[in-house]
Amino acid sequence: MSTLTISPSPHVHSGDSVKKNMYGVILALIPALIISVYNFGLGAIVVTATAVVSCMLFEHLIQKFLLKQETTIWDGSAMITGLLLAFNIPSNLPIFIIIIGALISIGVGKMSFGGLGNNPFNPALVGRVFLLISYPVQMTSWPIAKALPFSYTDVTTGATPLSVMKEALANGELPTNVLHEIPSYRDLFLGLQGGSAGEMAGIAILLGLGFMLFRKIITWHIPTAVIGSVFIFTGLLHWINPLMYAPPMFHVLSGGLFLGAVFMATDYSSSPMSKKGGLIFGIGIGVLTVAIRVFGAYPEGISFAILIMNAFVPLIDKYIKPKRFGEKPAVAK
Amino acid sequence: MLKTFSLGGIHPPENKFSAGKKIEALPVPSQVAIPVSQHIGAPAKPIVKKGDAVKVGTLIAESAGFVSANIHSPVSGTVFKVDDIVDASGYRKPAIIINVDGDEWEENIDRSTELKKDITATPEEIVKAVANAGIVGLGGATFPSHVKLSVPPGKTCEVLILNAVECEPYLTADHQLMMEKGEEIMVGTQIIMKALKVDKAVIGIENNKPDAIKHMESLASSYPEITIEPLKVQYPQGGEKQLIDACIKRQIPSGKLPIEVGAVVQNVGTTLAVYEAVQKNKPLFERVVTITGKSVSKPSNFLTRIGTPLNNLIDAAGGLPEDTGKVIGGGPMMGKALVSTDIPITKGSSGVLIMPNEEAKRKPMQNCIKCSKCITVCPMGLEPYLLMTVSDKQVWDRAEEENIMDCIECGSCSYTCPSSRPLLDYIRLGKGKVGQIMRSRTK
Ligand code: SF4
Ligand code: SF4
Fold it and tell me: For chain A, is the Cβ count within 10 Å smaller at the N or the C terminus?
């Protein structure tokens, strides 16, 4: 007999690992990727491949030459950042811009804070917002979705349903009239709308959500709070004045709300730790998204909303504690 | 829907290999070593010396205070010496070593197997008999049982809860006891109820023991004040706080004892020992020990005299497997890794788990990815990742504020963490330190 191992309890482990969770998220993103390739064809493939490869490469280079660490690019997290970045940008974005986005996402958004688990903001969103500010024209010309186009930058572009709505409302049109000019709810849900490469198809993202819930990668709290609060807030506005505000279903189904609520807001390290904190965080995102979409300068607000709420996470974590055992006073019979 | 506790919990693989294995009496060894500290509280004081003749059941070490326990000889023979031995923790502790000669029992012990249902002892006599018999919590906590049976003044006990959960993977001693000694456990329950002056008892059994639930339910039909509560399988349901929450939906406030919510919890094995002490005058000198493991050729439940060398059990279970990497006293979640197999079985030995090499080592730890899974599983509603950080940084006041002392050391957090972070190791350290600080404050 060799010598006995002595270590404190517990002596067994669930077998869960960082990789299992990260690759689980990647699997959950695949339906959205498929829809994105179907809608934007070659463009989606080029953008996604560029973003993923450059995110991994930058992480590797930074770890190797700047931080002198073991590389962690195979843990799946850099791939997720790459995928999410790709899903948040137009599918005809020039390659060099994508590479800059990846550098900002990984270099500034993730590694400068100490890598996986330490980033206060969602890295992909850091990259995306940087690009939006630096390349506003390229970042807001959206290719029109059509079945499997075999082209990349040479595509027809058009407005997203959200921007159509915003502009029309600003010109005093009635929301009900605008709804006829944009895809139906069913089409929106199936992803037949203009927009970023991977954000459109609610159904694909819900599939991914189901998978992540089943695998216990995330809990329902944040996505539900985000989508629910957008629905309630826009519903309230629409109920108060249907002539000025678009109906809630339109807001829920268009733009990047589903992608943001399910994949971006749930990023482990930039979201609160407790369930209660997650609900507050999600409601904050929902309310801010609507505020930006309806009252702000941009047609879409989910990215900013998430980044703003990311900044509140340390505060939420400090004051919102999980329900402790025994807090509930004992019921005396 | 089956009941369970409200917060957190995990479901590790059960691996109950020794389930359904009849309890076998392990042959009496040729020498036993009886540590004088086998319980929580003051070590017992030896009252025998080298050369003294003892019988099975002779008092050999006396309780040294209210929170302490008597120790009786599990064998007949001659005291060889009173000396230090290496115990389960690897430290040298005093013990009484007895050379065995025959198997002669004290005359006043009733050795018949006949069920004695009538309870003639008064509550005071019951508590006294339990104290005299040296009974301690046999689930592994080893808290002297007579202390738990003495309800403090000003408090009332409303319900007795019997812990038959055996939520630790691998262990099966309590399960098998219910199958073989169910009647005795029922009477034992009534005895404890009488001592506590309560008219209600609940036996909590997890749903992975359907045969035990059925058997106990059929027995309980003739004891209207005892109900069987089948519980959803969920670790750590055997924790006192979790079990009370599961059975009667009351949560003990932080830092308080079960009696605060009107409950007293006893383990089924302990209940059997109470029956034997009160009805048969038999002190606690033997117990059922599960010996098991993936590579163990004969996983078993052995009725073992206290002081029997662990090696005897291992031999009886088919010998130590080639690939042994770790030997654990208790279950895989809360048990202690043993330094060697050359130690005696004590009152708290609920089981011995032999783990193969490839499972013995932990995976290297990675960054905390803030997945919050440790929070999700914590049955006490704590934030293990944070407790580990503050313990590591030695911010003790923050640790106290974050309720570190509420941690029941169930290990669910470390079990779950995808980054294999040794959360509980750090939390234990923090608890030790914060406990020290709190004690120095009240002084
Ligand atoms: S060991 Fe402590 S902190 Fe970890 S899950 Fe159990 S009670 Fe919670
Ligand atoms: S389970 Fe591990 S990785 Fe996840 S939050 Fe807790 S400590 Fe961090």
Answer: C
d(CA A104, nearest CA chain B) in Å: 20
Which of A3, A5, A270, A325 should one mutate to test binding to chain B, selecting the residue with the greatest count of B CBs within 10 A? Answer: A325
Residue that is last in its domain, among B279, B309, B339: B279
Q: Residue A323: list chain B partners with CB under 8 A.
A: 7, 381
CB-CB contact of A73 with A60 (8 Å):
yes
- Tens of each residue's pLDDT in chain A, 333 residues: 458 888 899 999 999 999 999 999 999 999 999 988 888 888 889 999 999 999 999 999 999 999 888 888 999 999 999 999 999 898 888 999 999 999 999 999 999 998 899 999 999 999 999 999 999 888 887 777 766 666 666 666 767 778 778 877 877 777 777 777 777 777 777 766 666 666 667 888 999 999 999 999 999 999 999 999 999 999 999 999 888 888 898 888 887 899 999 999 999 999 999 999 999 999 999 999 999 988 887 778 899 999 999 999 999 999 999 999 987 654 443
CB contact (8 A) between residue B325 and residue A333 = no
Distance from CA of B395 to the nearest CA of A (A): 15
DSSP B426: H
In a domain? residue A203: no
* One domain, residues B145 and B267: yes
- Structural domain containing residue A48: 18-139
Which helix (H) or strand (E) element contains residue B46?
strand B45-46
Q: Which residue puts its alpha carbon closest to atom 7 of ligand 1?
A: B407
**A chain contacts of residue B405, beta-carbon cutoff 8 Å:** none
Alpha-carbon gap, residue B423 to B425, rounded angstroms: 6
How close A57 gets to chain B, by Cα (Å)? 20
State if residue B426 touches ligand 2 by the CB under 6 angstroms criterion: no
- The two most distant CA atoms of chain B are separated, in Å, by 64
Strand-pair category, B201-206 with B226-231: parallel
Q: Looking at the domain assignment, is residue A207 inside a domain?
A: no
B14: left (phi over 0), alpha (psi -120 to 50) or beta: alpha
- Ligand number nearest CA of A217 is 2
Q: What is the DSSP string of B165-200?
A: ---SSS--HHHHHHHHHHHHHHHHHHHHHHHHT-S-
Pick from A4, A268, A333: CB nearest B339: A4
CATH number at residue B227: 3.40.50.11540
Same domain, A106 and A183: no
Query: Does residue B367 lie within any of the structural domains?
Result: no
Domain that holds residue B322: 289-359
Phi (first) and psi of residue B79, to 5 degrees: -65, 125
- The answer, yes or no, to whether any atom of ligand 1 lies below 6 A from the CB of B380, is yes
User: How many Å apart are CA A33 and CA A37, to the nearest integer?
Assistant: 6
The single residue listed with the structure tokens 């006490």 is B380
pTM, entire model: 0.90
Answer yes or no: do A11 and B328 touch at CB < 8 A: yes
